[in-house]
Design goal:
314 residues; alpha/beta; five-stranded mixed β-sheet; 12 helices; 39% helix
C-alpha cells in the first residue's frame, strides 16, 4: 500500500460507509479541500453540510444532527476546532453527550509555515480535559480505517486529530499487534532496552528509529498510543517495569499532552525516568513538518540521539 495521509484514508473510508448508511453526514467549515472531502461531496451531496468559515456554527449544527439520530463527522483545521470552537465542543457535544466525531485536520504543526495562528499544539491537552470526550490520533492509513470502523459503532463523542503528510504504512500483515483497539496502546515494535511511546505522525519516526537502532544491537520497544483518552496505563506500567526508561514523542506542546499523561501514570504506579520529546512551551519556528520535527529532535535522527544519550547514563 502506497503512503497515504490519515485524513485521506478517513474520508475515503467514510464515503464507502456513508453509501450504505444515510445517517452519516460530513460537516465542514469551508474545509472540503483541506479535509480531502472533494470526492465524498461529489458522490454524496445530500449527506454533506457546508457551513462556511464558521467553526462554532459547524459544531452546533453537528450536535443538532446527532440529536435527531444522524452520525455527523466534523471536518475543520484542528487549530480552529480546538480554540475557536472549544466552548461548543465542551457544551454542545461533550456535555450533551452527542454522538459527534470531530476530525481536526492538519493538526500539530502541519501548517508549519503559517505560524502559531495555524498550529494546534495545545489540542491534546484541552480535549483530554473535557469530560466524556475521547481523544484519538491515528498513525497511518490502515489504523485510520480500523479506527473509523470501531468508532462508528460507538455512540460517543470523539476528537480525532490528523496530520496532512503522506505516511508509510506501519500496520502490515507482518505487524503482530492489531491496527486499532480503542483505549489500548499497540506494541508496534518489541524491545527490552528502552521504550518509546509516540502518537500520531511521530509513531512513524519512532519506528524508523527503532529499526535503525536494532542494527546497532539496541532493542527499542515502540508503543503506538493511538488513544490518548481513555489512556492505556497498563501498557505504560508494563513498559516501565520491563525496560526501565521511557521516552515519549509527540507533535504537541510539552505541557498537557502524551508526555504528561505518561509521567502521571508512571509517578502514580511505578516510578522510573521518563524523557519527554515534544514542542517547547513557545511559539515554534516556522517551516514544513520535516524541518520543524528535525529542529526540535522529533524526527528519527533526534529520537536515536536521545536514546543513545539515555542509554549511556542508564
Amino acid at each position: 500500500m502506497e503512503p497515504i495521509s490519515v485524513k485521506e484514508a478517513i474520508t475515503a473510508e467514510l464515503q464507502a460507509l456513508a453509501v450504505h448508511d444515510q445517517r452519516i453526514v460530513a460537516v465542514t467549515s469551508d474545509a472540503r479541500g483541506s479535509a480531502s472531502l472533494s470526492n465524498y461531496v461529489k458522490a454524496l451531496p445530500k449527506q454533506f453540510v457546508e457551513c462556511g468559515i464558521a467553526e462554532q456554527d459547524e459544531v452546533g449544527i453537528a450536535a443538532g444532527l446527532a440529536a435527531v439520530g444522524k452520525h455527523p463527522y466534523i471536518f475543520a483545521p484542528a487549530c480552529f476546532l480546538s480554540a475557536r470552537s472549544l466552548e461548543q465542543v465542551k457544551v454542545d457535544i461533550a456535555y450533551s453527550r452527542q454522538n459527534v466525531k470531530i476530525v481536526g485536520v492538519s493538526g500539530g504543526i502541519s501548517y508549519g509555515a503559517l505560524g502559531s495562528s495555524h498550529h494546534s499544539t495545545h489540542d491534546i491537552a484541552v480535549m483530554r480535559a473535557i469530560p466524556d470526550l475521547a481523544v484519538v490520533l491515528p498513525s497511518d492509513g490502515v489504523q485510520a480505517v480500523a479506527m473509523l470502523h470501531d468508532l462508528e459503532k460507538r455512540n460517543i463523542p470523539v476528537y480525532i486529530r490528523t496530520g496532512k503528510a503522506k505516511l508509510p504504512i506501519l500496520y502490515t500483515e507482518e505487524t503482530e499487534c492489531q491496527p486499532f483497539v480503542f483505549g489500548k496502546a499497540g506494541m508496534i515494535r518489541k524491545g527490552s532496552d528502552i521504550t518509546v511511546i509516540a502518537c500520531g505522525e511521530c509513531v512513524c519516526q519512532a519506528v524508523v528509529a527503532s529499526d535503525a537502532l536494532k542494527k546497532e544491537g539496541i532493542s527499542v520497544r515502540v508503543l503506538d498510543m493511538a488513544t490518548l483518552k481513555p489512556f492505556d496505563t497498563d501498557a505504560v506500567v508494563q513498559a516501565a517495569k520491563e525496560t526501565g526508561h521511557i521516552i515519549t514523542v509527540e507533535e504537541h506542546n510539552i505541557n498537557g499532552g502524551l508526555g504528561a499523561a505518561v509521567c502521571q501514570a508512571v509517578c502514580a504506579t511505578y516510578p522510573i525516568p521518563v524523557t519527554c520529546l515534544a514542542l517547547p512551551d513557545e511559539h515554534v519556528v516556522a517551516g514544513n513538518s520535516s524541518e520543524v520535527f528535525a529542529y526540535y529532535g522529533l524526527d528519527a535522527s533526534g529520537i536515536c540521539n536521545t536514546i543513545h544519550a539515555v542509554l549511556e547514563k542508564k
